[in-house]
Design brief:
Layout lengths: L8 H8 L4 H16 L3 E5 L13 E5 L9 E8 L4 H11 L12 E7 L6 H11 L4 E5 L1 H8 L3 H10 L10 H6 L13 E3 L5 E3 L4 H6 L5
Length: 216
């Protein structure tokens, strides 16, 4: 019988080298943010073909702080390259301004690279001392894997993406869609009625609401 979680470190490492996963990685990070942030007010992290748009890979705003997501505004740079140190320096070097005219001193900078980036902590500490950004966070392969431990809906989504879906585990929007229900929008009531008139919890609530943020 398959055990939980279905995604281990080697699965993530292998995914990073898969063709096309460079455009899936932003979707993974977006789902992780949506599932673990507190008081999320902005989540602009294009995935798929949207990664070619340019600018920051992600701009996030949250009222509260969690281990996974800084409070306030944060910008995110994402990559699956195995040349992590050089990529981090390149991304950081070209980001001299905050989003929408915000001073960099009011913004946290997050560099996430899906590779065994052993010097990630040292790199972040050195950049933090420069004082350009309010805070600097560096996430490597192991940090991303650790975040999956606290994001079961995202883990289930990724397992299906990597061909490791567990029997009986399905995202809530997929479950309702098989029964002919449409996913309610963010402005929907907390509860909605099914065609037979019975009230059911809206899937756009709690963890399910956050986990439903898929590709645009």
């Amino acid at each position: 019988m398959a055990s939980w979680p279905p995604i281990d470190r080697d699965d993530l490492k292998g995914a990073a080298s898969r063709a096309g996963f460079d455009t899936d990685f932003p979707l993974l990070i977006r789902r992780l943010i949506a599932e673990t942030a507190v008081g999320l007010t902005d989540l602009d992290t294009p995935g798929g073909s949207g990664t070619a748009a340019g600018g920051f890979d992600g701009v996030v705003a949250a009222n509260g702080r969690t281990i996974e997501v800084p409070a306030g505004t944060s910008v995110w740079e994402l990559s699956v390259t195995d040349q992590a140190q050089g990529k981090a320096d390149e991304d950081y070097g070209k980001r001299l301004d905050g989003p929408d005219g915000l001073p960099t001193g009011d913004v946290a900078y997050v560099q996430a690279i899906l590779a065994p980036w052993t010097k990630s902590r040292t790199w972040a500490s050195a950049r933090r001392k420069e004082g350009r950004w309010r805070d600097v966070v560096a996430l490597n392969l192991d940090a991303v894997h650790a975040r999956l431990d606290r994001a079961p809906a995202t883990t289930a989504w990724l397992a299906e993406r990597l061909g490791k879906a567990m029997p009986g585990v399905r995202l809530i929007d997929q479950w309702w869609s098989t029964r002919g229900y449409r996913r309610p929008g963010p402005g929907s009531a907390r509860r909605s009625s099914s065609p037979d008139g019975r009230s059911r919890p809206s899937q756009w609530s709690s963890c399910s609401r956050r986990a439903a943020a898929s590709s645009r």
